[in-house]
Amino acid sequence: MLLQNEEKLNKIRSAIGKIGIMIIDAGSMVSEALLDGDKEWLEKARDKLKNIDADANRTDNEIVASLALFGAEAGDLRELVSYLKITNEFVRMADNLRGFAKNITLYIDDAGRFVLLKEYVTQLYKASMSAVTTAIGLIGSKDNVEELYRKVMVEENKSDDLYALMEKNVLDLNTLSDDFIANYAKILNTVRKLEKMADRAVAVAKLVLFAKSGGELKLY
Could you tell me which residues come within 8 angstroms of residue 200 by beta carbon, excluding any fewer than 6 positions away? Predict the structure, then answer.
């Protein structure tokens, strides 16, 4: 690859990495809020992600320019195409995380509605963020790619199982009033955003695997 092309690709890789770090940092802030009940962390997390759409658009423009102006080799072409899709997954991840941080604020200090599901929420959050963090780390990894990919899949499956258990737990609360059950349903809708984040992590992992190994790209 020509030096100019390599410099351009390195710049794109750096931009992708920075977006991923923003998501991980915001995730750590939400984790703090769930741990100690300090809702200020939720606001900090949302603020951390406020510019992610603009950053992703700027990176997409760099990728498109590279595709248009430089004759990328097959491996680099796969990488650029993957990054173009990964930025979209990152934006949707950030939307899910922002939505969770916003809506869970209503319940985080409401012991009456939240306490019965708090342990499930915490464990689901850990599984989802583990999938996200591993998928983001996979982007810059040269070794253990298959192992990291499998870890993302394991954590995503775990998040699915935990969400299913939460749904069952709510349905089993049939002795409670309809209003109380409705409130739990709203919590489930909020927590579903975490499960979707794990799905996005799997999509990112598949894109990275395609970029590194080639083959047929199947996200869903």
Answer: 89, 90, 92, 93, 96, 132
Position of tokens 């059950």?
A: 181
Neighbours of 66 (CB within 10 A): 20
Neighbours of 55 (CB within 10 A): 19
CATH 1.20.120.450: does it fit domain 3-213? no
Cα 142 from Cα 119, distance rounded (Å) = 36
Q: How far apart are CA 159 and CA 213, in angstroms?
A: 27
Q: DSSP class of residue 176?
A: S
Q: Kindly report whether the global pTM for this prediction surpasses the value 0.90.
A: no
Q: If DSSP codes are grouped into helix, strand and coil, which group holds residue 51?
A: coil
Q: What is the pLDDT of residues 117-138, one digit of tens each?
A: 788 889 999 999 999 999 999 9
Entry field: residues in the chain: 220
Residue 205 pLDDT more than 70? yes
